[in-house]
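Cross-posting from the modeling subforum.

Setting up a comparison between two proteins and wanted a second pair of eyes on the formatting. Protein 1 (sequence, then structure tokens):
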Amino acid sequence: MAITFNDIQAILSDIARRGNMPLSESPHGAFWDNYDQFVNDPTFFDKNAPLESPFYQRLMTESMPYTGPYITDPGYMLGQKYQDDLKEWLQNGFPNNPAAGISSAPTEFQPTWEGDPGKNNGVKDLFTATDISHMKGVARQVGRNIYLDDYDNVKLNAIMIYGMVKNQRMPPGKPWSVQYLETFQKWMDAGYPKN
């Protein structure tokens, strides 16, 4: 699925969370909140040579965030995925998010966190009790608490969770099916609908 501005916002927010300085103390704050301001700022982007854009170069040359860690560091969880996604987004012309309510297949199932009442088809139903318990126990390994039974926490950590299940690092011993992966990806692409 195509990388959109939602994905880039999630990546940049995750990179910022891993830094040692809260955004409230940063001289620039979360400069990726507004699509038009972000992509039209020439101090960030060169639309004629996207991979030469100052924004991308700073991420790739270990100068952003200035406190580190950097997505190019060996062992940076999801670092290569973040690099690939950023590169794809830039090369595809900085795609914005799909307009709300617009779907290429209106009759296609659109996953939500809650799912349809009584059908066990929500995103929360992708996680078993074992998965939930396991992730609560690995907080030190991933550098944060991940509560798979909490909507806000899963939304906050969705990119990391997706990378872990896609790369079969989770759930232990029982990789997700293609259908599960597609469901989770569609949920992220739709902007993490709750119900």
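Protein 2 (same layout):
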Amino acid sequence: MGSAKNTGKQAAAKRNLLVVAEFRHHLRAFLRFSEVAAEEAGLRAQQYQLLQVVGAAPGDEPPTIAYVANRLFLRHNSAVELVDRTEQQGLLEREVDANDHRKILLRLTRRGEEVLASLVILHMDELKKWGPEMIDVLRRVTGEANGAATQKPVSRN
């Protein structure tokens, strides 16, 4: 009876692995699309992500380098280098905070807004195409977490 129990655990572990691997594949496929789209627009993927973070920052005050570093999971000095490269391309500008001269505020330039807007349109179109399939994969992942997943693997070429 112990071997039947182990076989059941192994089968469940294998199902979990298949579902998680399928989810990771879909995430990676979308990220790869994003990397290629950014490159075709003359950016590195992280620069596109930086433009997203700055453009989508909540509130009335522009984001700081510390905010960007946190949102992109970067060290402060790495965020500074990324901002430097993006600013050199004319996509971003810095401004010293009038109330706290230690804070550097970031703003998109008009060119940065245009590049970001065009990339967002491409990404939204791609998400609309892949959306139903990605939702299906997410349902299988959450079903597996609740012990009720299906095994139907979906392959995206």
